[in-house]
Input
Amino acid sequence: MKIQDNAVVAIHYTLKNDEGQVLDSSEGKDPLKYLHGAKNIIPGLEQALVDKTEGDDVEVSIEPKDAYGERNPEAVKQLPKNTFEGIDNLQEGMVLQAQTPQGAVPLRVVEVGDEAVTVDMNHQLAGVRLNFSVKVDSVREATAEEIEHGHAH
Ligand code: ZN
Output
């Protein structure tokens, strides 16, 4: 069958950035299984897979707006260093969890100064164009329970 809403799809994929660096891959793992039309995967990839079928190869480049969004400059903030009291070994590249009213937000440490720490709350893949090589492994109809749950079982 062709991929459409309420299909359970399994794909093998390799994701690269524009520099050709592999960011993620299903190689050596089970294929990624998702429920089509339920926003389980990024919109640009979901769109590119419509009407494909088992065995198809799909090459697609997805702009940030159809992936993890553009980088938001306002999500880069300087915080007083004492905000981080009690965190041992605070250093560049560390990812911390910030507690906000909306829940935990990952916060990447960009720079540790003498008095302030610069943090970035953008998704790590924000502003990045994603180049996917996908092979469709299988397509089947979702069960009523999967549709109700909004994900593949
Ligand atoms: Zn479920």
About this structure: The chain is about 10% helix and 40% strand. The longest helix spans residues 43-48. Strands lie at 7-16, 22-25, 32-35, 57-62, 76-80, 95-100, 103-112, 116-120, 130-141. Residues 149, 151, 153 surround zinc ion (CB under 6 Å).
